Amino acid sequence: MIAITQALSLEGLNGFLIDVEADVGNGVPAFNLLGLPDASLSEARDRVRSAIINSQAQWPNKRITLALSPASLPKRGSAFDCAIALALLAAAEEISLERLNGSVILGELTLDGRIKAVAGILPALRAAAHHGISRAIIPSQNFHEGSLVSSMEISHFSHLRELIGWCKGNELAEPIHRIAYGESDEIEKVNSTLDFSDISGQESAKEALEIGAVGGHHIAMVGPPGVGKSMLAERIPTILPELNERDSLEVTSLHSIAGKISSESRWPLIAVPPFVAPHHTITRAGLIGGGSAVISPGACSLAHRGILFLDEAPELARTVIESLREPMELGEITLTRLGRSATFPAHFTLVLASNPCPCGWAIGKGKRCTCTPLASRRYRERLSGPILDRIDLRIELEPLSQADLLRTGESSDRIRERVARARARAVTRFRDMPWSINSEIPAVALRHQFAPEPKALGVLYQALDNEEITVRALHRIQRVAWSIADLREEPSPSRSTIDRALDLHLRERL
Fold first, then answer.
1. What domain range is 425 assigned to?
2. Residue 69 in contact with residue 29, Cβ under 8 Å?
3. Average pLDDT of 203-221?
């Protein structure tokens, strides 16, 4: 007899439905698994056999053939275990598949029959829903994450014995409460211990970060040690509005694939912009993603719709930081490994922090720098021109005075209110467009629908003719000008707004 269940294979955020076909027939007892399984999936035979026996079910001592279709698509991981076990038991006429019709089945089995959580449940169920699947069987540990896909009917089990009993007609145990989107008391909040009011002085830097928060513009900060570069960067998420439902699901899906969603969390949805700050020794694969058996997102994708903070930026390997060129322009990263490709979104705001020279003291009244001009120049040149040309706001921080330390800064709440109002203006302006923030305005739109007044653009064209900026920088400065205009509640960028945007692009010592 032949029985068929359905599982799902993920490649990036895209999922492919897999038919698990089981044939139990007469012949010499054997177990054949077809369909390009990897090593962990080939081991499913022993896991499934022990799980079935330890769940008080009968293992068919016959010739078993399992085919994973489509056969041309490589399959990886242990999330197919439950689908294999149920297809095999149905083919042996131990259970009925009536309750499983139209369901996708995901879960890893232990030798004693427990159903373990698997990574990537959220993107897998979103992909299944895209293919028209309306029901899912998942591990109980993944229920809260899976329940974020509100369009699907979710059944969850912690042991294969319970799942087999349910297939035979038993009722489910008391269901876990399914939390609806918008129950804000369950949503993860920004770390409340961080606030912009903690930072004295550096008012011009705070202004630039506020502009960057409005439009999602890339930022570079340079200054001597101890002036507050890291403190400023860590507090940027506190002035950003919460993510909308679509972006929250996308961000959470990326973290789910990377295995960073805890199965203990009652509400795993990431509702606040992520802040990702890798060490400066990070590898290229760690930054943009990679892997051999499974293609996983890197730091730039985990920072999607949030902040990617690279401290001590010139200390990063040249090939590592240069790999950010494409995602900074395209907002996504496509990785190809062993003939397979996966595309991950990467709309992040890059924040670079650097000392002005190897010793760090080239800025300030004391001028205590001990570096030679050649050493300073080589240090600055570790960040290439193409990378710096993609930076929108360039901030120079100087050591604080005693008077600066006595000033009380604005709270994050007040700044976030202004940022939210400015973003709302942009959303209204772009209501018929496929983008919603100023940094994503295409160049062609800047030349037509959203072009500032020609008189206001004169200073930019002059800077272009003097080779002070590139064409790419000209467009980036215009996007920053729109963000400043939104903060000032101007209908379009004025001459003074564009002057300010140009000044923020040129003021920098990197």
1. 196-431
2. no
3. 94
